[in-house]
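Q: What structure does this chain adopt?
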Amino acid sequence: MNTSQFPGVDRIELMQTFVRIVESGNLSAAAARLGTSQPTVSRRLQTLEKLLGLKLLQRTTHVMKLTEDGERCYAHARTLLESWQGIEDDLRGVTEEPQGVLRVLAPHAFGQDQMIGPLQRYLQRYPQMTVEWMLSDRHPDFIAEGIDCAVHVGPVTEPSVVALLVAEVPRIVIGAPSLLPSGELPRHPQQLQDLPWLALSTFYRHSVSLTQFPSGENQRFDIRPRLLTDSLYALRNAVLAGMGVGIASSWVVQEDIARGDLLHLAPQWQAAALPVYLVYPHARYYPARLRMFLAMMREAMPVLSGTQHPVR
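A:
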């Protein structure tokens, strides 16, 4: 193909557009991520296909599918863009401040409470950065959604991502004083079994396992929860209302306990601490904005109120 037929064509831009189309799943979503229009994205795709003399995508009204040539082009394009980003960062100097947009997914409760302080420090240190801070407890599709990093509380089972263990969140049994008319604080899990229970469905539903510290003795028993919820704040509020006892991350309820609004039940027993991970996709190159974010979060998260260093 005589490339002189395409004077002034920015081939890096064409490759970047093609990668965004594939990752986003359609032209409109790619245009939104690139901050341009759908006709512009369509025109760039047509130009790239003419430049290469290949059909890269098969499109119908509802389906977009890569051709074999398109799959090879996508693999090469991603490698090219990673290399180009590395070249830019190297030539600009490693001391240059990160800039641009970082897209981070964080859990609802943890992301709107505990992590605002570290996030503020990141933005103060790097004033040319913008963070898109998305709150959800779901597992993201990093590539399709254009997400750089996720903060995940709980086990990570996806083998295709990098997962850095940075902290653990202790969990304790809590209840309102109104549930204990005798005023006697339960000291052993056996005293908890007959109380009304509330469940945080993402971590426990129909059974409870508690461990005594420092002995390591474990007690497990079944529960029949009156309420199941996937919201940590909803669980806390339901316990405050006297609907039942539950297991909550200690940071959520520490002020309630200090005021006497909630009681820490069986205080020598805890549920297994929840691991906190920084999760991001594998890549040969990571931009400075992500590297700096990961470095700051690895330092900040184990010392947040209500978290602890992970036991390795």
